[in-house]
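Researcher: Re-running this chain for the archive, since the previous output was lost when a drive failed. Same request as before.
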Amino acid sequence: MTAYILRRLLFIVPTMLGIMLVSFVVVQFAPGGPVEQVIAKLSGSDTGATSRISGSQGDFSNRGMAQGGGSVDAVNAKYRGAQGLDPAFIKKLEKQFGFDKPAYERFGIMLWNYARFDFGSSYFRDVTVLELIKEKLPVSMSLGIWMTLLTYLISIPLGIKKAVDAGSRFDMWTSTIIIVGYAIPGFLFAILLIILFAGGSFFNWFPLRGLISENFWALPWYAQIADYFWHLTLPILSMVLSAFATMTLLTKNSFLEEIRKQYVLTARAKGCSQNQVLYGHVFRNAMLIVIAGFPSAFVSAFFAGSLLIETIFSLDGLGLLGFESVLNRDYPVVFATLYIFSLVGVVVNLIADLTYTWIDPRIDFESREV
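Model: Regenerated structure tokens:
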């Protein structure tokens, strides 16, 4: 197992290199880079998301043209709205954002810095990327951890119960509720919760913005805990809905498949009780497919899955930070969040594989290639 772990750890390097290379190449052709953002602000042009998407093409791919000088027209023609601006000012902007260097050199510098977890500073905020991430992390951690914990704690026991009582009235009623819950988008359910319980049209029981109240630090510790979960209730319910439905059905189907196998009939014929059959024989095999989906579910819940919920409930987390950074072409933040998300995903995937061997010792990764 030690050799397998070492191979997987070494495999992280080419995996991360491939992810960053593909992302970097794609960004080279993205319209409306940071230089154009500054020019648009100076010229009073529309800097909304639509204008950035429909803006000039080849922003990054043509940036190397100005390094050797050239006429005013040659320099300004690269950027929409740059006509009439001093080409020396444009070159100064390119140098400020690091675009005075060729793409391969910028990519190499980025890799070297990221290997040392040096993500630089935001283009448009006077703060380092690590400080930004540290500031937004509590929101994403709160949403991701509690969503994952509640999903697994509720879905797995419920899925097992539905598998054991398959076809019963309990199974049919809970399946109806689960299917309806799965069909409702999380953001739509969030709006419904706001209307019902956050001062929309009926009750005003829960707050509508923030992770904590303004007087949080003046409260006693038990009141701080209550205030924290008071703010989290509606966002977590909104996020758990679809994940809860998916995990419950996955657990049920996995246990149903195992319960119908021959070894279960043999265990029952030997006089094993229901709990001994379920948790002594079926559980290890049935849970493998549930664990297999944990890495993607965890990373999605922790980072990407909370974007709309963060926006609706005014929670300033990593999902909202990444989205705004893409719109604003704040590339240090974009690449840093991508790097961290990808790295966490790869590590969690390794942990999931190791969990396989803990649940089912018959699985031996040592004899397999990565």
